[in-house]
Specification:
The chain is an all-beta fold and about 250 residues long. The chain contains no helices and 24 strands. It folds into 2 domains: about 110 residues, Metal Binding Protein, Guanine Nucleotide Exchange Factor, Chain A; about 110 residues, Domain of unknown function (DUF427) (Metal Binding Protein, Guanine Nucleotide Exchange Factor, Chain A, Beta Complex). The strands form 5 sheets. It has a 7-stranded antiparallel beta sheet with strand order 1-4-5-9-8-7-6, with no helix packed on it. A 7-stranded antiparallel beta sheet has the order 12-15-16-22-21-20-17, with no helix packed on it. The protein has a 4-stranded antiparallel beta sheet with strand order 3-2-10-11, with no helix packed on it.
């Protein structure tokens, strides 16, 4: 049980972060803390709030204004390292903040170049300590189709189970009909899996369907079994698993 009290509502709970957190801008260390707080500003994942004593204050630029949000009144600051500037990217909370947040700073994630939990880089947002992602090898028979065309078929997939998302099926590239895949310039990042190496669109029956498949060449350590494999959006293709045609799930990727 956390020593921090719950805040105003179910999306505002506050808990200590047990991991060392570091972040950099333009090669300069901005923060280094073992005392960060998780604050769930909305249900799906938390943000880090960092004690001011663990922040490099020499790069903070006071913008002499405040913003009031539900966590309290934040003094707005920018960041500057040499020629690199990130205006309005930090909120410094004072005595009217929620319990446990007095004299903590909340950084806009994208304002910093790199974030690390211990020595592993984290992307997009802090990882939810109550969410998990597992990659498990399987001998299920998986077939991927679109508009009646077989895109891939495998009897040795890796199944990825991720909290809040449908099971993803990752297949060997040799089991994918690469003739239907068109390389895309799209990239994305995931706090649990890392950065995608590439995306593919799919062309079938003369129609191009954008960004239906992806691959990670260098996933996070926990997801190494999916390295180099290809997965398709369940929401946008037809999956037949052990002879059963699955319904397309409804998610924010639909």
């Amino acid at each position: 049980m956390s020593d921090f009290p719950k805040a105003n509502g179910p999306d505002d709970r506050i808990e200590p972060v047990p991991r060392r957190i570091r972040a950099y801008l333009a090669g300069e260390l901005v923060l280094d803390t073992r005392r960060a707080r998780y604050v769930w500003e909305w249900p799906y994942y938390p943000q880090y709030y960092v004690p001011v004593d663990d922040v490099n204050r020499t790069i903070l630029i006071d913008e002499h204004r405040t913003e009031r949000i539900r966590c309290g009144t934040g003094r707005v600051h920018g960041l500057r390292v040499g020629e690199t500037s990130r205006p309005s990217s930090v909120r410094w909370y004072g005595t009217d903040a929620l319990p446990g947040l007095d004299d903590t700073l909340r950084f806009e994630w994208a304002a910093l170049d790199n974030w690390f939990e211990e020595d592993e880089e984290v992307f997009v947002h802090p990882r939810n300590p109550y969410a998990r992602v597992d990659a498990i090898r399987s001998t299920r028979h998986v077939r991927v189709e679109l508009d009646g065309v077989v895109l891939a078929e495998s009897a040795s997939p890796v199944l990825v189970f991720e909290t809040g998302l449908p099971t993803r099926y990752y297949l060997n590239q040799t089991e994918v009909n690469l003739g239907h895949l068109v390389p895309s310039r799209t990239t994305s990042s995931c706090p649990y899996k890392g950065r995608t190496s590439r995306y593919w669109s799919v062309r079938v029956n003369g129609t191009l369907h954008p960004d239906l498949a992806w691959s990670y060449s260098y996933p996070t350590a926990a997801l190494l079994p999916i390295a180099g494999l290809i997965s398709f959006y369940n929401e946008k293709v037809d999956l037949i698993v052990d002879g059963e045609r699955l319904s397309r799930p409804e998610t924010h990727f639909s």
